[in-house]
Inverse folding.
């Protein structure tokens, strides 16, 4: 039964409702080996994106979610507050090329319509890339996907999962004001460099620069000074290794690309994970076997390129 935009929600676990470049579903199978064995307090994710880690972990305490992308955050906030209105708008949409470009060009002020537009474009666009031109206009072409773009039950579950979360738009550095002792901070920044070379990734209007990487390094210093935990994922590149070398635990994993441009760009890449959670204090340690290794990813390519995420 549904009353006043407060739906009856089935007990199903929320999944990411957006496709997002650099999504971290691939990491979740390893995360129990990285998390502190004794648990953690509040959870912070200042590069929210598709929210794969948040939805996978379902943190038990207070949650702070943020991102610099104002359209993305507005979508999360609206889905949290009025999921039925968003679903109502999405029911009007059609996964057709002409309709896609018609919606892409429309300008809305209503929050539910804006959120529905964001979800629709994300789910029906080419590779789910969020890209805008120099004027700030979303310009990703139609994707010719056959997957259903409206998953009502999951959107309701997402709304429920977000109910206790504090969601805000802003620079990642703002997160440090809320971090307390034994909190967990998950950091998944846009990559300044592509994996193992000097190329640049420009999915967003404003590139996450090397200066931003150095600022992020200072945020990690602040996290450590507050005796909180951090887990950072980043491109496996020598300059990234240099910037984030703090004497903490560093892992290098091979993963499959989730979002790419052409088939030639898809494949396996290497990624760094930095954390101040020692192996002996993590779920990957046992007295009998010592540290369990975090192995390279062996999931098949089709899993990561599937329509679900």
């Amino acid at each position: 039964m549904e009353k006043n935009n407060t739906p009856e929600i089935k007990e199903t676990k929320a999944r990411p409702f957006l496709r997002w470049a650099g999504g971290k579903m691939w990491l979740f199978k390893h995360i129990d080996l990285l998390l502190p064995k004794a648990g953690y307090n509040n959870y912070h994710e200042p590069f929210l994106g598709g929210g794969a880690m948040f939805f996978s972990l379902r943190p038990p305490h207070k949650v702070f979610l943020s991102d610099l992308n104002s359209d993305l955050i507005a979508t999360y906030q609206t889905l949290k507050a009025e999921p039925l209105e968003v679903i109502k708008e999405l029911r009007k949409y059609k996964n057709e090329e002409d309709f896609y470009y018609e919606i892409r060009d429309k300008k809305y002020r209503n929050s539910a319509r804006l959120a529905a537009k964001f979800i629709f474009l994300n789910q029906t666009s080419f590779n789910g890339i969020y890209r805008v031109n120099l004027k700030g206009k979303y310009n990703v072409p139609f994707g010719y996907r056959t997957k259903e773009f409206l998953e009502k039950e999951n959107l309701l579950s997402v709304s429920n999962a977000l109910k206790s979360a504090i969601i805000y738009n802003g620079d990642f550095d703002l997160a440090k004001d809320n971090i307390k002792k034994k909190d967990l901070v998950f950091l998944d920044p846009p990559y300044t460099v592509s994996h193992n070379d000097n190329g640049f990734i420009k999915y967003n209007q404003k590139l996450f620069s090397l200066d931003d990487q150095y600022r992020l390094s200072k945020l990690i210093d602040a996290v450590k000074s507050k005796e909180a935990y951090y887990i950072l994922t980043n491109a496996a590149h020598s300059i990234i290794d240099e910037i984030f070398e703090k004497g903490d635990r560093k892992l290098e994993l091979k993963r499959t690309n989730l979002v790419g441009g052409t088939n030639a760009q898809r494949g396996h890449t290497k990624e760094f994970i930095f954390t101040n959670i020692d192996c002996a204090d993590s779920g990957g340690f046992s007295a009998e076997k010592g540290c369990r290794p975090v192995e390279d990813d062996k999931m098949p390519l089709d899993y990561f390129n599937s329509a679900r995420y």
Remarks:
- Residues 210-225 form the longest helix (16 residues).
- The beta strands are 43-45, 63-67, 165-169, 184-187, 229-235, 249-256, 268-275, 285-286, 290-291.
